[in-house]
Amino acid sequence: MTSQPAEDRIVVLESFADPITAHLAKSRLEAEQIPCFLTNENLVSLNRLYGPATGGVRLHVREQDVAAALEVLRYETVPMTASHADDEHAESDILHCPRCNSTDVAFGPATRNTYSFPMLMLSVLLGYPLRGKRYHCFHCRHEFKRSEAVNE
């Protein structure tokens, strides 16, 4: 059995929960002329429940390109909502996470239990969980209300 030289070895740089985020990272690396490819993309696309079991969508690079690829993706955040640069109020309306001060936040259904008593009763009657909406930080996974957010 022969050992491959370091410049020919392929390593997993990062694993992503969804194919869209993986493609954004792959496109960023390709724009910087770093060759890369994805695996498990179709499996995770077909059924999201397979993602954690298979390690998610994996981004592979050559071992010699790991440092450069990490530097390219280091500060890259994937926005979950569209922002308008033309909007004069856009800068003042940016919310920051109260825990980590990240701007990678979005408003939507809460992932943790945020039941009030009426919502809990309605959920039991319908047999379907009805959850409130909160802001979610994709950096530290903290959920918070707008009143807790840091406006800058």
From TrEMBL:
Residues 16-74 form the DUF2007 domain. It comes from the Bacteria. SUPFAM superfamilies: GlnB-like. InterPro entries: DUF2007 (IPR018551), N-reg_PII-like_a/b (IPR011322). Gene3D superfamilies: UreE, C-terminal domain. This is DUF2007 domain-containing protein. The lineage of its organism: Bacteria, Pseudomonadati, Bacteroidota, Cytophagia, Cytophagales.
